[in-house]
Design brief:
27 helices; about 800 residues; alpha+beta; three-stranded mixed β-sheet; about 45% helix
Length: about 800
């Protein structure tokens, strides 16, 4: 807020002997604003001028022209006063418009603005090729800590203008500067409950330590972000899941083999020592390295390779874990560049006949011709190409060339990870041919390759679909006509049956017995007539069914041979991204949305929630699928699940809550249920957003842990009473809550986990933990606007 003071100007005695009081003028100082905003741009100066004039307008509205005449002002002065009022009104309107625009800033814009301030301070510390004294000059600065705290609040979707926690950033900065900040005292531990459950603990940072971690994260991002390789896609600005999939689909051309590497290891002394040693190449600051080591000794870093998917907003992923993991695995990325260049440019019998026409690769090949490197026979007529894509600790490889080269490359990579980076590599990741129908799992979806259909193949498939639809139509017509005729035969027979003859069905002389003689074993009553249909008609229909089935199930190649001028030669392979529809259906059953047969059912855990909260929960899973699977080749299956399972489960949950028919629920909640889009609405939304790239809505660095946070299951635990008040557990939110909820950890998938829309690996220590959430943040959690990382689980201890 701008500082304010008032000063009154007094007129001497006028001609009538009366003392006249001029308008009280209020002055606003921009000194504080300029201190808070180091840029000191023109916007602040204009805002200050607008405030001055607006205040003049506000305080002069009660001063009428008649009073001005009585006080001795002449017409010219009164005209100037009117002009000043008009001018003040104009500037005030301009200021209001500017303030309205500033309030429309998104969370990404706010975080980007906050990080830019810290970025300027970090760059000022670059001297002699290294960043120096980052702890003393940047992190141990009250303004930096305040900006880091605002970044945390922005992640929590909290209005920065609202009341904040009572933190003394000056004392925190002083403790960091003199090295007296106690890391262990600013942590708390949550462990699993129950005697039959394996004892597991999870250490969380308290708010002060979390702010320090956020400040360290931003500083390290500024230092290392420009130096990360293109292989890395995790927690990177302008990159994410979508960029990794785009690279695999469009940039990797004609691979022969692919595989993924599964690494597992908790942060230990060897890894931490290697990490800090590599950081000394760019940073010279023992104080910074010391506090990172203190966090490790207090188990507050929460950095683990493998174990759970990264970037899904899980509480066990620490604040510093993404940037530290990228810094550490950047050593791996650089080794991949070196090894891939070695394999691709190794001298062999016909190395000059490589299909790659890259001048850069040719130059590297000429440069290393004389070097003593291990030689591999990489093929005679086709060059070896190595492709790598890494998202945090999930690593994907695709190789063009012989299988022997792929095996040798995989062996070298595993050896480097074990011997140089001290990581454990699982031996489950086998090398698969890219044409293998099983495909490979990466980032929670399935990647496969199939033959690209040419125009003739598409024509054949289209014709098959038409024949299949025509055959199904004839089958429906045959069954409908047969049922109609059968009912007429049955009615004709029953008209001649007397009531007394029904009791004597066994009597061979009764009419009912004569009719029943036409019934074969296993036939329904309305099918008796089939024995009386003309044999030619039945034979003709059965022959049609047989021919249609043979054509539909026939091979495409044999059908193409019948087309004039067509060739069965394929036109290459294409890479497909397949959403795990079968896994999604299993998760729907686990969360209680479907029964064993896959039909929608009532989700009884959600019944006690408010109506809008129930609909928000179901809407959240739909929004996640639309955001994650739109580019998948089997997105039509996902749309079918949305319409048939998710929407119907929501309707049946509301129907069970109110104990009324489902049709009445659809009428009553029609506006709310429209948020769960139908298949047609999804297709319309796809058409409207087709030209909007995901880069505009996703940012892998600023929204890390939020864009791909899974949906969690919450049930109502109790209502909050005056005797037991409770505030919202979301960091930075001080709103009072009305209800306390129980968190359910429904599953713990093995790494790597499938991406199903639900939280796949919530730590077991958080199972059945009670948390208080205000209505806004409960909605944000359901819709995916915040993640579980924004919740302070230590609010009640």
């Amino acid at each position: 807020m701008l500082s304010r003071f008032e000063r009154k100007l007094w007129m001497p005695m006028n001609a009538t002997g009366r003392s006249t009081e001029r308008l009280p003028v209020t002055f606003y100082s921009t000194e504080k604003a300029l201190n808070e905003y180091s840029d000191g741009d023109k916007v602040i100066r204009k805002a200050a001028l607008a405030k001055n004039l607006a205040n003049l307008l506000e305080e002069s509205t009660s001063y009428s022209p008649h009073e001005a005449v009585e006080d001795g002002y002449d017409g010219e002065e009164i005209g100037k006063m009117a002009l000043a009022k008009n001018l003040a009104s104009l500037v005030q309107e301009s200021c209001d418009v500017h303030e309205q625009k500033s309030t429309r800033r998104t969370r990404m814009e706010v975080k980007r603005l906050l990080e830019v301030r810290i970025k300027k301070k970090v760059k000022e510390q670059f001297r002699d090729g290294k960043f120096q004294d980052l702890m003393m000059k940047v992190i141990a600065d009250p303004n930096t800590l305040r900006d880091a705290y605002d970044c945390i609040r922005a992640n929590s979707n909290v209005d920065l203008a609202s009341d904040a926690d009572n933190l003394s950033f000056e004392s925190m900065a002083e403790e960091l500067a003199n090295g007296s900040f106690d890391v262990e005292a600013n942590t708390y531990t949550i462990s699993t409950r129950g005697t039959k459950v394996k004892k597991e603990e999870l250490v969380f940072p308290k708010l002060k330590l979390r702010v320090v971690q956020e400040a360290v994260r931003i500083v390290l991002e500024v230092v290392y972000r420009p130096h990360f390789s293109k292989i890395s896609h995790g927690s990177r600005s302008g990159r994410g899941h979508w960029s990794a999939m785009k690279y695999i689909r469009k940039e990797i051309v004609d691979p022969d083999w692919w595989f993924t590497l599964l690494i597992n290891k908790r942060l230990d002394d060897c890894i931490l020592g290697k990490l800090l040693s590599s950081m000394k190449d760019k940073i010279e600051d023992p104080s910074l390295f010391g506090i990172i080591r203190n966090m490790f000794e207090a188990s507050a870093l929460n950095m683990e390779f493998g174990a759970f998917p990264k970037g899904h907003g899980l509480p066990q992923e620490g604040v510093l874990s993404p940037i530290l993991m990228n810094i550490y695995l950047d050593l791996f990325d650089r080794e991949i560049y070196r090894m891939s260049m070695q394999y691709e440019t190794s001298k062999c019998c016909n190395a000059e006949e490589h299909t790659s026409n890259s001048k850069l690769r040719s130059w590297f090949r000429r440069q290393i011709d004389g070097n003593d490197v291990q030689q591999y026979n990489v093929g005679k007529n086709s060059g070896v190409r190595v492709h790598c894509c890494r998202f945090m600790d999930e690593i994907f490889f695709a190789i063009s060339g012989p299988k022997e080269v792929a095996l040798a490359f995989k062996s070298d990579i595993e050896r480097y990870l074990k011997n140089s980076l001290y990581l454990d590599v699982e031996s489950q990741g086998d090398i698969l041919a890219c044409s293998d129908a099983r495909g490979v799992q990466f980032l929670g979806i399935l990647i496969k390759r199939r033959l690209k259909e040419n125009a003739a193949v598409r024509a054949v498939h289209k014709l098959k679909d038409k024949v299949k639809a025509f055959a199904e139509q004839k089958q429906e017509s045959w069954d409908a006509g047969a049922a109609r005729i059968g009912k007429k035969w049955l009615a004709h027979g029953l008209k001649k049956v007397k009531e007394s003859e029904i009791k004597h069905l066994a009597d061979s002389s009764s009419v009912l017995h004569q009719i029943s003689c036409h019934r074969k074993s296993g036939m329904e009553t309305d099918h008796w007539y089939k024995n009386q249909l003309p044999q030619e008609l039945r034979d003709s229909y059965y022959e049609f069914k047989k021919r249609a089935k043979e054509y539909i199930s026939s091979e495409t190649a044999s059908t193409l041979a019948l087309l004039p001028g067509s060739s069965p030669i394929d036109s290459g392979y294409i890479t497909e991204m397949i959403a795990p529809a079968n896994i999604i259906m299993k998760r729907l059953h686990r969360y209680g949305l479907t029964n064993m047969d896959g039909y929608a059912r009532t989700c009884y855990v959600l019944i006690l929630l408010d109506d809008n909260q129930i609909i928000d929960w179901f809407t959240g899973i739909v929004h996640r699928w639309l955001k994650w699977y739109t580019e998948c080749n089997n997105f039509s299956q996902v749309k079918h699940i949305i319409s048939n399972q998710v929407r119907m489960s929501c309707i049946r949950t509301l129907a069970a809550k109110y104990r009324i028919h489902e049709a009445e629920i659809e009428k009553k909640f029609d506006p709310e249920l429209s948020r769960i889009l139908s298949t047609q609405e999804i297709e319309l939304e796809e058409a409207n957003t087709e030209l909007i790239p995901q880069e505009a809505t996703f940012d892998g660095a600023l929204m890390y842990g939020i864009n791909y946070s899974g949906l969690c299951l919450l049930s109502l635990a109790r209502m909050v009473s005056q005797s037991r008040p409770c505030n919202c557990f979301v960091i930075g939110c001080s709103a009072s809550v009305l209800c306390v909820y129980t968190l359910h950890a429904m599953e713990r998938q093995r790494f790597p986990a499938w991406k199903t829309g639900f939280s796949s690996s919530i730590h077991p220590s958080l199972h059945r933990r009670r948390i208080g959430l205000c209505k806004q943040h409960l909605k944000d959690l359901f819709l995916g606007n915040i993640s579980l990382q924004s919740i302070d689980f230590g609010a009640w201890r």
